[in-house]
Amino acid sequence: MTDMPLGTLPTEAQVEERAVEIGGAMPFIAVFKREFKQYFRSPIAYGVAFALFLFLGIYFNGFVSQVNGQMPADTTLIPSIITFLMFLFAPLLTMRLIAEETREGTLETLMTLPMSEWQFIVGKFLAVWAYYTVLLVISLIYVAIMSMIGTPDYGATIGAYFGAWLYGGAVLAIAMIFSALTEDQIVAAFLGAATILVLYLSNTAASALSAQSPVLANIVRELGLTAHYDATMAAGILRLEDVLYFVFVMIAALFITTRIVEIRRWRS
Amino acid sequence: MALTQPTFGIIGYGGIAFGVLALIAWILLAPAQAKGVLTGRTVRFGGTSLIVTILVIVALAVVYVLARNQNVRVDLTESDAYSLTAESREAMASYAADPTLPDARLLAFYSASQAGAQDRDSALFDDYVRNSGGKLSYEFIDPERNPQQASLYGVTRPGQIAVVAVDPATGELATEDAALVNNAIQQDLTNAIMEATAQGQFIAYFITSRESEGADMTALKDILTNRWDWTVVDANLTQLTSPDYEYPLNDPNFDGQVIIIPGGSAALTDEELGILENYLANGGDLVLYAGTNLNPDQTSLATSQNLNDYLEANFGLRIHPEVLLDTTQAYQTPLLPISTNLNTSALVTSIGVARGQGVLLYQAPNYITVAETAPANVTTTTLSSSSDSAYLISDLSRIMNAQSPEELLPQSGDTTGRFVLGAQAENTETGARIVVFTSTSIATDAFSVLNVSNQQVAANSVVWATNFDNFVSQITIPQQQRPQDVPLFASEQDLRNINFLTIIVLPLGILGVGVYVWWSNRKRGQVKS
Amino acid sequence: MIEVNQLTKRYGGFTAVNGISFRAVRGVTGFLGPNGAGKTTTMRMLTGYLPPTDGNATVAGYDVFKQSIKARQHVGYLPESVPLYRDMTAIGYLMYIAEIRGVKHRRERAETILARVGLANRANSQIRTLSKGMRQRVGLASALIHDPEVLILDEPTIGLDPIQVLELRDLVRELGERHTVLFSTHILSEAEQVCDDVIIINHGSIVAQGAPAALRGELERGGRVLVRADVAIEQLLPVVREISGIGSVEISLNGVIATPSTTDDPRPQIASAIVNRGWRLLELRPVAVNLEEIFLELTRQGNKDAEAAEVAE
Fold first, then answer.
1. Containing domain of residue C268, as a range?
2. Could you give the number of structural domains in chain A?
3. Can you tell me the ipTM of this complex?
4. CA–CA distance, A233 with A230 (Å, rounded to integer)
5. Going from the N-terminus, what domains does chain B have, and what CATH number goes with each?
6. What confidence tens digit (pLDDT) does each residue in B170-215 have?
7. pLDDT per residue over B329-371, tens digit each?
8. Which of residues 61-80 of B touch A (CB under 8 A)?
9. Partner residue opposite B525 with nearest CB, options C51, C65, C129
């Protein structure tokens, strides 16, 4: 094929001129802001919050009336319950994040903007994590109530909430993988819930395995979520490895999500 | 962590180190190639992408494992649930500072299903190790996989912890020097460490063979033998001086000895008193439980003239035969007076007894007079006294023949007031120590089940008398009541408010906001179309 | 400016784009081809959405793969399906894209560009309430928000009503004055109207390229000729067929259409043959060709080649 010049070449000045000023782009912040606002306009986010707080309310009331006058205030209870329920709520919060963009085709527009997948994914993730943080902050109301009718251990409270925050981040990042993997939101939610449940129950699997192979059991246990939260952070012990575990799960999950988005795009 | 170290071992670490080094070497030697592999066109496609992802995950896992082995922990709880309290720290400091005390090992018998508890409690164990100057170590053992070891230390259920001293000569675990704790509760653990590492051979003689048997004190003997590893023998006084006897008095093999006279319905013979005198003059230790003999002969230690003359002359204490009763501060009957006036600065009545809450229950006690001026080199201390409403009955037949409870009530002519029921004395020159209580009820099994301090005080008496406290700096560290331990309390009204707020207002409020947002969005869409 | 050099995209065994090279500068370049010719794939590679299997391309001087982010800063892209966030307002969407692109004074810019595409009065409408043509213009506005040097429009007129199509064509032509526009379509008349240059692609390969007029001239030069003389067609037909250099003849309504077998212009020979017989030549002109015909011709050719290749395999 011959290299055939067409038309006339533009002059330097013509190339330089631009009607708009451009600079300091922070694409992930833009993505974060849009997604975060989206949560306050999305019916499913309110549905999740309603279901969560209805459940927590009923549970909390049961707890208070049961131990009234018998047991000390326990503020680590609510964050622990929240972490358990996240296997259900995390996929509901993340299922549309990427699946919708893929299905609607908006991913094509976004991926031709000067924004890397990584920025896009991180922006999305930070938005859902921030929404989860809002839920956690609202749940501090239970700490306030506990402090009126008893004396909670605030140190342990901080540990439990910090842990629940990290735990939520890790679980949401995992659930996001499935939103990138399939365009079908329901499938994404189911796969996400199943994966998180498996990671949640790996503790139980480990104790069943321990008779055969203690080494394997220990690895299975440490791979799971529970071993890094229930007995340690939720009890007020902050361990470096637990913090790293959750942070690393987030990084790994986001990395995998990025790769999936990239591969799916390039194979489209 | 103790769990994985033996399995991971040198090969595992070596492998990781080698891998990391190789990676670094490659990046340094061929930076362009490394950069190309990580960012090049092929990376982004299927297979290579998978390899890169795996590499990233492996790198994260390596960092995780390395970080985990640093054992970095912060105890966030205000109650220091997983780090040592000031009391435990002090106890560990004195343990660490005493070179005569052996090393010890905590064998935590946790089953596989208690892996979480293992993670949690290892933070506490780690703090013990840190504060013990290297003398403590710990290990998790699965009792289901190691039943022999579990039964060796008497472990009956998972979660128990055996504290075992290490034999300094052989370096092996001294199975006989073990103390078992039911849960990883700091107070219990500290005590167990103290008990297991306490050194010295001690013997307690329970004098039984005078005409009638003394009171039953199995519970006290149990503490001595099982918890403290003492030698306990039942013997009569004459036996003790016999050269053929297995455990003769003043046996140099023992670091401490104590004679315990558990009451009895006989006076001391002069021969027996002679043995005691000789024993005490050489710095011996004696714990004496008097008590009333309500049989017709009425003979008891309290009526033992020779004994009381000796005690008064040498230790400034005298037991009087009158029976002390109390109508206002008693348990069910005036015959069971209660003493709440415990000396909170004396070892015998303070350690392990909550300050100001100690209660001693006496059964038909006598009373003690403490000489105003003690004999030379002797210090006397009152340990326990009755309430001001106590009264004395000198005619025991009045009690023995009483047909109705009313007859036990105080009558005009009875002496009323506060009387001493327990006292201790020490001869600082000879080192002799004696503890006297006016009722065997302090140490008998019959009262050990009631919620009173008798048992603790009985044990403490032995500790003080033998200077055993020098070996165990704190037999029992007191548990502090913290505000966090106080149960929460919500009134009916509070409960209703909480119910309303958390079940109605909060969830429905969220739902309401959601519906509002949805509605206003919908309307906006409709108007514009 | 767009420079494409041996750009190739393969999916497994299937070659969607096969080593194409071209260069587009200021003005509107039409990208023509039937559906499945590789237009969209090429455009996606130029926008950095797809990585090329082989070859390279630069946009505004940046390699679309190695300097993808830089290249994307100078490209505005409107995908064929015009994906938009339906629950956002037009202005909200434009400001979102502007923020990702790091455009400053976003609101002013978004308002300006909305006015430019004629949607100023619908700025605060939710996109789902807009008509197809309006959405198309919102998409175009979002591609223009950063005033890119290169604008890539994938079949922007598809699905629009005739008036909207005309409006959009005017807009694209206008944009061609300031930008390098690569405009794909499978409608030839459109390309002819709008484009300064045309690249025809079929089965992943370029089959022709040039200005529409030049392409037509080129084809006409060796093209079919209509011959009319004052004799009956039955007489005329064998004469024309006999002339050397004429491949085939066919009967037209009132004359004969001759198709030459060489690229030489057959008209002088035809003229002399008729005049030599003493007939009078009434008409001798090339049959008017438009891009449609060129396109059909070229793509038919390509298809045959492809079929032949498939049979050969």
1. 224-286
2. 1
3. 0.86
4. 6
5. 5-68 (no CATH), 86-194 (3.40.30.10), 200-470 (3.40.50)
6. 878 877 667 788 888 887 888 888 777 776 778 888 887 555 555 6
7. 888 888 889 888 888 777 788 777 777 778 888 988 999 999 8
8. 61, 63-64, 67-68, 70, 72-79
9. C129
